[in-house]
């Protein structure tokens, strides 16, 4: 074979690659665009649902007016319902759904366990304990915020999980079992603090919040959680190839040049920070980080550069509608968001267990 024929053969072999890559980029772009459009539409429609009659054009008009893009013809009451009550709550639901889904994706990849998420690993329970200690016991004398208390509690729970799993052998199964133990421990501590130090009104409010509640949130909660989510998502996307390497096991990742221990600590601490911020604003909402990553993988595959944004969008849309259902299904009584996610998540959890058993 001549050099010219060899060169032609090489070009023929390489020709389909750019085309396949272009199709993949087009498909991913279409998926992200559709997901973003669905999220914006979901937020707009969810804000209209409630006792007060509000339309989607009213929502756009109020948002545009507050962003300085036009004048609103709405009355102050209707404008206040949209901008001060429903919009912050709906946006925080989107941020919490996206954040919890991203945390679940990262934890499942790092631990190579499809059942890992902030709730199962005890991070949410630790954050709840820290927040309750600050609110009820007044720890820190006012110098420690609820968010800081939640973060400290999340780190304590995370440290306990690492210690127990390392003592028990350090395998991924041991990490999950250690997380379940930590979850039970911090849940018990939270209940003990509430039952012994809180009055009846505090107990009622805290217990409702611990089940997951987005009522009474404001723009401060939205901006804080959104900022932490943005930083976490950037860090995780920066480690996308590293997370792909963990799919082959930590030994294979180390052989590919990944600093396994340092990467695991960085990413788990980052997800613990995000979980703490979300729990401090919305309480402990379970199963979002467990279910949504599996649904997103069915659309994008396991490559984290595509998986993480799609998971965030899916989690955001999911929790927007879950919160809408929670605040309207028994109107005027409100159902905790965590109750609704559990009712949806438990059957999905069983399905994941069944599929894991079949593939093991």
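-> sequence recovered:
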């Amino acid at each position: 074979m001549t050099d010219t024929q060899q060169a032609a053969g090489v070009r023929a072999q390489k020709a389909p690659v750019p085309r396949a890559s272009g199709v993949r980029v087009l498909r991913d772009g279409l998926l992200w665009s559709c997901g973003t459009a669905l999220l914006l539409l979901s937020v707009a429609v969810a804000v209209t649902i409630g006792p007060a009659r509000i339309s989607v054009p009213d929502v756009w008009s109020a948002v545009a007016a507050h962003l300085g893009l036009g004048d609103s013809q709405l009355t102050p009451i209707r404008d206040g319902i949209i901008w001060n009550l429903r919009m912050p709550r709906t946006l925080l639901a989107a941020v919490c759904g996206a954040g919890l889904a991203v945390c679940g994706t990262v934890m499942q990849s790092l631990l190579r366990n499809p059942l890992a998420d902030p709730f199962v690993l005890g991070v949410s329970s630790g954050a709840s304990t820290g927040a309750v200690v600050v609110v009820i016991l007044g720890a820190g004398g006012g110098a420690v915020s609820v968010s800081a208390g939640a973060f400290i509690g999340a780190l304590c729970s995370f440290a306990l999980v690492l210690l127990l799993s390392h003592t028990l052998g350090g395998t991924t199964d041991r990490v999950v079992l250690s997380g379940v133990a930590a979850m039970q421990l911090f849940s018990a501590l939270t209940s003990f603090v509430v039952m012994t130090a809180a009055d009846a009104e505090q107990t009622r409010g805290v217990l409702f919040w611990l089940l997951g509640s987005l009522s009474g949130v404001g723009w401060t909660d939205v901006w804080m959680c959104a900022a932490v989510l943005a930083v976490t998502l950037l860090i995780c996307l920066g480690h996308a190839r590293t997370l792909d390497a963990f799919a082959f096991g930590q030994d294979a990742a180390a052989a590919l040049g990944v600093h396994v221990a340092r990467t695991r600590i960085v990413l788990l601490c980052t997800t613990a920070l995000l979980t703490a911020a979300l729990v401090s604003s919305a309480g402990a909402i379970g199963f979002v980080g467990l279910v949504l990553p599996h649904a997103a993988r069915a659309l994008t595959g396991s490559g984290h550069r595509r998986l993480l944004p799609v998971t965030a969008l899916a989690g955001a849309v999911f929790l927007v509608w879950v919160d809408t259902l929670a605040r309207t299904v028994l109107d005027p009584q409100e159902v905790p968001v965590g109750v609704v996610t559990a009712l949806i998540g438990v059957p999905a959890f069983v399905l994941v267990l069944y599929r894991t058993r079949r593939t093991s």
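Confidence is low (pLDDT under 50) at residues 1-20.
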